[in-house]
Amino acid sequence: MSALLSEKAPARTYAAHAKPWWQRTLMTRDAAIVALLVVVWTYASIAILNFSDPITVYFLVLDITPILLIALPMTLIIITGEIDLSVASVVGLSSVLFGVLHREGVPMVAAMVLALLACAVAGAFNGVLVTRYGLPSLAVTIGTMALFRGIAVGALGTTAITDWPDSWGDAVQARIGDTQIPLMTIPLVALIVVFAVILHFTPFGRGIFAAGLSKDAARFSGVNVDRTKLILFTLSGLVSGLAGIYFTLRYGSARGDNATGLELQVIAAVLLGGVSIFGGRGAIPGVIAGVVLIGTIGSALRLDGLSANLIQIITGVLLIAAVIAASVLGWTGRIVGTYRRQLSSDEPSSKNSKKSE
Amino acid sequence: MTSKFRRAGSAVAIVAALGLALSACGGGSGSGSDGEGGGDTSSITFIPKNLGNPYFDASDAGGKKAAEEIGTEWKQVGPTESTPDSQVSFINTATQQRAGALVVSANDPTAIGDALEEARNAGTKVVTMDSDTEPQFRDVFVSQADAAGIAKSQVDLIAEQIGDKGEIAILSAAANATNQNEWIKLMEEELAANHPDIKLVDTVYGNDDDQTSFDKTAGLLQSHPNLKGIISPTTVGIAAAARYLSDSQYKGKVSLTGLGTPNQMREYVKDGTVKAFALWDPEQLGYLSAFAADALASGDIEGKEGDTFEAGELGEYTVGADGVIVLGEPTVFDESNIDDFDF
After folding, report:
1. Is B331 helix (H, G, I), strand (E, B) or coil?
2. 3-class SS of residue B343
3. Are B178 and B132 in contact, with CB atoms under 8 Å apart?
4. A282 CB-contact burial (10 Å; exposed 0-12 / middle 13-18 / buried 19+)
């Protein structure tokens, strides 16, 4: 019995570090998706007229900003094995609250903070239902997706608030100096770094992976799984609220139906970026590449004159292909792993037997 | 057992890898062959509110016809849903392509403004058609008809059909659609001024979605039992309302008029659900917009008040105040003339 344990334990603990660091970095799904992005970008620059123009980057960054923002907390939530489908409705809610407060004469910054707080509460509401009452997040957030959207559209009626100071809209769309890089890139990159550090370099982040791999094992090793999830859902609400503010300022229009359907784009990008829908696996760099990849494909196909329907079909096929590829890779990986373990467990046991002789 | 399992696994892996490779190739080569086509400096790009809308199919046909007569490149792109943010990425694409001119039917008067400004900074001329933006965001607006004329013709039609007395309601498109709201406002004014016995009891929004419009019509008839007429100033709305009325007890009792296309409304005019409705010819609207776009792109006009240009078979047009070009009076369609039109 004890012999069995001592044989298996090292294989599990050190398997991930058995290869040299460059192999561990390059032969991952993250690296694959980054490589795919580079290939698509290079191909589009050569084959598609006007794609290599620097302004492509400007429009691309502005277009993917809300998706990228929400993809950050979404990644963390999906790694814990949960999902948040209400994010796009929170964007609408944030936009409407911001708009109504602005219309009622609340100063811009105060209106922004109040809208963000409300969205954090909306996210926490999801979190409480999931953690306190143990409800499946899929069901909870389908419900709140309708609920938040309903409140957003209901609060403003079917009108829009379009009376925004130009300076704010200009600030959101400003460029860095004479380049075609939006100023928004700076806070965006900062936020990406924050999330990457949280997920990959803190005990809290390791708790996120642990919760996704095995809730019980995580709990027994001292991770407060419920608290972790509650924090993540709140964070998701807050960041979605931020995306709502961005949406409102960029388009100068606060509407209840802003960002309808955005949740699917976010989840598609996150899964494309190599995060396992079953939880426990994923990384921020891959997700960023996934978001940029989806944006790049859309941008390239539009420049190529393809219709919106066709772009959706191609994105859908790509997503399914990515998920299938992930499952198949995982499967073969496991089989190969089992095979290797069999081989390696054969060898030491024969050495042991020799020694004992 | 394990070896069989392993073999099945690798077979699936190979098939999946092949599938991936094939799909990647398919997408790649397809876009590649299209990509070589576009040198776009004098092209005209049409961006309708959404694709698959018969009204914009007609205006696109007109735009295409005009482009052929002018001898310039024409293309049509657009979102599948009529939301403003979805139009922005297509406007941006036209900017990147350095399109000569852009003809847009705006889903929102301000939301696409910055994108249009960006396009104009890059040298692209901007024509709005059918639904305007704020005037500072475009060069000219090609208006289907003068708004007051549209409002009055619909009020006159309903007044004639219900005997100038009773309750009516309006079934509109999106609550934020610029043109719809302007017409509704003018209809209210026209009713108050010239038709004191007609009472507007409700305005509902079908969002230019067939099913929503259908359901809203049912709702209107249930909540207002004394309703005598419905005005639907949108082609999707009037067709959905006519479909509901034609199968209901209200057929022939509740009058319906508004803005519709002859092809959509033909069967309802013939079966007596609808007596008469109005519309400008969207094909002519697209046709005129393309000529206006070309006149701007080639530098013939600047879009100032008093500028004149030739619009093919429609003759000469003059740019009015605020850069507005008016197509003309709406046409009334009824049983006597509906078969003369095909759009």
Report:
1. strand
2. coil
3. yes
4. buried
**What value, to the nearest 5°, has the Cα angle with vertex A215 and ends A332 and A21?**
45
The 3-class SS string of B87-124 reads HHHHHHHHHHCCCCEEEECCCCCCCCHHHHHHHHHCCC
Picking from B121, B96, B106, the residue whose alpha carbon sits closest to that of residue B180 is B106
Whether residues A49 and B114 touch (CB distance < 8 A) is answered with no
Tell me how far apart the alpha carbons of residues B88 and B86 are, in angstroms, rounded to a whole number. 5
Q: Which A-chain residues 291-330 have CB contacts (< 8 A) with chain B?
A: 298-309, 312, 314, 317-318, 321, 324-325, 328-329
Question: How many whole angstroms separate alpha carbon B158 and alpha carbon A342?
Answer: 84
**Alpha helices, DSSP H only, in chain A?**
2-14, 21-26, 29-47, 55-79, 87-103, 108-131, 137-156, 166-172, 185-201, 203-213, 215-220, 225-251, 262-272, 284-303, 308-356
Strands B198-205 and B166-172: parallel
Q: How far is CA B251 from the centre of its chain?
A: 28
Q: Could you say which of A50, A173, A302 has the minimum Cβ distance to residue B90?
A: A302
Residue B48's nearest CA partner among B35, B38, B40, B60 is B60
Q: Does A280 touch chain B (CB under 8 A)?
A: no
Full DSSP string of B163-213: TS-EEEEEEES-TT-HHHHHHHHHHHHHHHHH-TTEEEEEEEE-TT-HHHH
Return all residues near A267 (Cβ < 8 A) that are at least 6 apart.
A74, A78, A83, A85
* Burial class, B320, CB count within 10 angstroms (exposed 0-12 / middle 13-18 / buried 19+): middle
Question: Inter-chain contact A328–B31, Cβ cutoff 8 Å?
Answer: no
Provide the residue-wise pLDDT of chain B in tens; the chain has 343 residues.
Answer: 444 444 444 444 444 443 443 333 333 333 333 333 334 457 899 999 888 887 888 899 999 999 999 999 998 888 887 776 788 989 999 998 889 999 999 988 888 988 999 999 989 999 999 888 989 999 999 998 788 888 999 999 999 999 999 999 999 998 888 889 999 999 999 999 999 999 999 999 998 889 999 999 999 999 999 999 999 999 999 999 999 999 999 988 999 999 998 888 999 999 999 999 998 888 899 999 999 999 999 999 998 899 999 999 899 999 998 999 999 878 899 999 898 777 7
Query: Are B110 and A312 a contacting pair at CB < 8 A?
Result: no
Instruction: Indicate the pTM of the whole model.
Output: 0.73
C-alpha span between B231 and B237 (Å, rounded): 9
Question: What part of B 98-157 touches A (C-beta under 8 Å)?
Answer: 98, 108-114, 122
Residue A281 phi/psi, 5° resolution?
-140, 140
Collapse the DSSP code of B258 into the 3-class scheme (helix H, G, I; strand E, B; otherwise coil) and give the result: strand
Cβ contact A294:A265 at 8 Å: yes
Task: Return the ∠ at Cα B330 (arms to B324 and B331), rounded to 5°.
Answer: 155
CB atoms within 10 A of CB B36: 11
Q: Is ipTM beyond 0.90?
A: no
From B22, B100, B54, B101, select the one nearest B262 (Cα to Cα): B54
